[in-house]
Each structure stands twice: as C-alpha cells, then as structure tokens.
Amino acid sequence: MPRPMKLRCVAQLPSVGFFRPVGIPVNVLEEVHLSVEEAESIRLKDLSRLEQEGCAQRMHVSRPTFHRILESARGKLADALVNGKAIQIEGGNFGLRQSRFRCSNDGYEWDVPFEVLARRVPLSCPVCSSASVQSVTPPPFGLVGGSGRGFRGGRFRGERRW
Ligand SMILES: [Zn+2]
Fold first, then answer.
1. What is the pLDDT of residues 110-138, one digit of tens each?
2. Is pTM beyond 0.85 here?
3. Dist. CA 118–CA 135, nearest whole Å
4. Cα 136 to ligand 1 centre (Å)
5. Which sign does the torsion angle of CA 55, 84, 19, 100 carry?
6. Does residue 86 register a pLDDT over 90?
7. Residue 98 forms beta bridges with which residues?
C-alpha cells in the first residue's frame, strides 16, 4: 500500500470555487483544476507576499515541496489566463488549520488544530468520550464532492469530503 501523502495545512478556503471567462461557449470551454492547497500557495506567496520559507512553514511542508505546489498553481493559472480556460478549485490533500467537530451523542462542539488531524489520531468527544464525532466545518462553494483527502473515508462518521 502506498504511503499516504502528508496533509498540507490550509488556513483559508477559497471563497469561490469556479471562474469562467466571458464569451466562450460552454461546449468548447476548457478547464484547469487547482487543488485547494495550490490556491493556498498562491494566496500566501503571490497575494500576502510572504517569503517561501514562511509559506512552507505555514503549510507544514518543506520548502521544495512548497515551491513545487506554487509552480504547479502558477502554471495552471497562466494557462487559464492566456488560453481562456475556466478555473475549478477543488479537492487536494489538505487539512484546515483548525476544524470544528461536533459530538453526535451530546452535541458538544470543539475545535481541532491541524497538528492533531495530521497525526491521524482518532478523535473522541472530550466530554463523553464518544467516537461518534463529525466535522462541522462547512465546505465552501464549489468544493463539495471534490477529491479531497483531508480526512480518510469512514474515519469520522458523517465526515464531509471536500
Ligand atoms: Zn460527547
């Protein structure tokens, strides 16, 4: 079995998941697909203007890995801009810096930091110790049903995927 890829930490989900150029008929419109962590790399480096080292630390990846993610993202954005393609942001291999979970037994809600999720520690309710906990962090527009592997299927009952 291949080793699961390490999760990349994402502080902010994109507010919009789909961009489309005007004036191109849908039947000939091509799309580029950006992962959520690729969008995060653009946000950190090209919008917030952070040094690559700082970006890498924020996403919990090595500097070369961050560079690879960023270059991939920039290439896709350039392709979309120059060649008039739509941009779909979805899926990826990431965890939020902080995710909110709810216990289905007693309704208690609490926040789980990225470091805990990245270790893949099975979560249980801090109040009643029930293992019936689920993420309540809402996926943003356009990200529902993506190929996100932020959390492994079946790990948390009712877990939403993005
Ligand atoms: Zn509970």
1. 988 888 888 877 789 999 999 999 888 66
2. no
3. 15
4. 14
5. negative
6. yes
7. 113
Instruction: For residue 101, report the distance from its CA to the centre of ligand 1, in Å.
Output: 10
Tokens of 114: 């990225």
**Which residues have a Cβ under 8 Å from the Cβ of 64 and sit 6 or more positions away?**
none
Q: How far is the CA of 149 from the centre of ligand 1 (A)?
A: 25
40 touches 127 (CB < 8 A): no
20 CA → ligand 1 middle, Å: 44
For residue 106, the CA-to-ligand 1 centroid distance in Å is: 5
Helix (H) or strand (E) segment spanning residue 6: none
User: Residue 162 C-alpha to ligand 1 middle, in angstroms?
Assistant: 25
Backbone angles phi, psi at 14, to 5 degrees: -60, 145
Distant-in-sequence, close-in-space partners of 82: CB < 8 Å, separation ≥ 6: none
> In angstroms, what is the span from residue 114 Cα to ligand 1's centroid?
21
Residue bearing tokens 């989900």? 13
Query: Could you tell me the distance, in angstroms and rounded to a whole number, from the CA of residue 156 to the centre of ligand 1?
Result: 14
What is the rounded radius of gyration, in angstroms, for the C-alpha atoms of the chain? 17
CA gap 109, 65 in Å, rounded = 34
CA of 123 to the centre of ligand 1 (A): 11
Q: How big is the chain, counted in residues? A: 162
